[in-house]
Design a protein that fits this description.
By secondary structure, this protein is α/β, with parallel strands linked by helices. It is 26% helix and 22% strand. It has helices at 25-35, 57-61, 68-77, 133-139, 208-226, 229-252, and strands spanning 12-15, 42-50, 79-82, 103-110, 113-119, 144-149, 168-177, 180-189, 203-205, 261-264. The strands form two sheets. It has an eight-stranded mixed sheet with strand order 3-4-5-2-6-7-8-9. It has a two-stranded antiparallel ribbon with strand order 1-10.
Length: 294
């Protein structure tokens, strides 16, 4: 369905091109590649474990061992895969020498999107790296991070994380309500990131329906973040750099290729079509998580 697919949010067009100027075939091919959306969209997601009482970022990134509740959650969301020799989307994880850990969690196809998780407890741990830079360079560079707060009484604040690139936090806590097991969800998004669905701040049974909800939420979160003014500015800078490189290359090969003018087309966020089967008991609200639900 349309709501589960990250729609093209950053289309650009080039104008003021003189059709009489001969074009270099390789240059044209590279420009076409840049402008062509991926046939199979891919998404990388951070997954950060927060155990009881943890409020400091380095403590969260220092968790070496997983927990049964975290494993249950990850197993519901994705398939655990051996990284060495893995042939799917790796999201920059090392699939040759185990340089970033031995295992991770992967979704081969969710509504046409391939997803790889950067899991804090699975990433390479270096005792000499007191700032946990090796782990932060993956999760800290993910636009969307799922924060799994294992203890429902631990208050998590988004200000504990210092990443300048992460724009959306999906905070998940396992709780028991009236004798049944649920996940509680809250969301934080940076200023400038448009609202996106499905609605959160509710209790969800720990089943496949919840996994579909959260993956949909993550995809829409990434789409919304890429439509924010901050990302559009970055996109224009990146494309301007590409154009400079293309022009320099073409000039060095004695091709008079015009630089053109690139302008962004207004970003669009794919609408959310509500599905059935996602309960929202009023008791789920007032979770104590320090975020404004989206």
């Amino acid at each position: 369905p349309d709501w589960a697919t990250p729609d093209a949010t950053k289309s650009f067009r080039m104008r003021e091109i003189d059709p009489k100027v001969p074009a270099d075939a390789a240059l044209v091919a590279e420009l076409v590649r840049l402008e062509t959306p991926e046939a199979e969209p891919k998404l990388k997601l951070g997954a950060l474990l927060v155990t009881a009482g943890q409020t400091v970022e380095n403590d969260m990134y220092s968790n070496r061992e997983t927990t049964s509740l975290f494993d249950e959650f990850l197993g519901l969301m994705a398939q655990k895969v051996r990284l060495k020799g893995f042939g799917g989307y790796s999201a920059q994880l090392d699939t040759e020498h185990d340089g970033s850990g031995e295992y991770s969690y992967h979704v081969a196809n969710f509504e046409g999107v391939e997803i790889m998780f950067h899991v804090s407890t699975e990433l390479q741990y270096d005792e000499t790296d007191e700032q946990r830079i090796q782990r932060k360079r993956f999760i800290g560079n993910d636009i969307v991070v799922v924060v799994f707060v294992e203890d429902e009484h631990t208050l998590f604040s988004g200000s504990a994380l210092t990443s300048e690139y992460t724009n959306v936090l999906l905070v998940v806590s396992p709780i028991t309500y009236q004798g049944a097991a649920y996940y509680r969800v809250a969301v934080a998004r940076n200023k400038g990131v448009p609202a996106f669905g499905p609605p959160a701040a509710a209790l969800y049974p720990r089943n496949a329906g919840f996994a579909a909800f959260l993956l949909t939420k993550a995809i829409n979160a990434s789409t919304a973040a890429c439509a924010s003014p901050e990302f559009l500015v970055r996109e224009r800078r990146t494309r301007a750099t590409y154009l400079e490189l293309f022009h320099s290359k073409a000039s060095s090969e004695a091709h008079d290729v015009p630089r053109g003018v690139w302008q962004p087309v207004k970003a669009r966020i794919a609408p959310y079509a509500p599905g059935a089967g996602f309960p929202s008991p009023s008791a789920a609200r007032g979770s104590g998580v320090a975020f404004v639900p989206v």
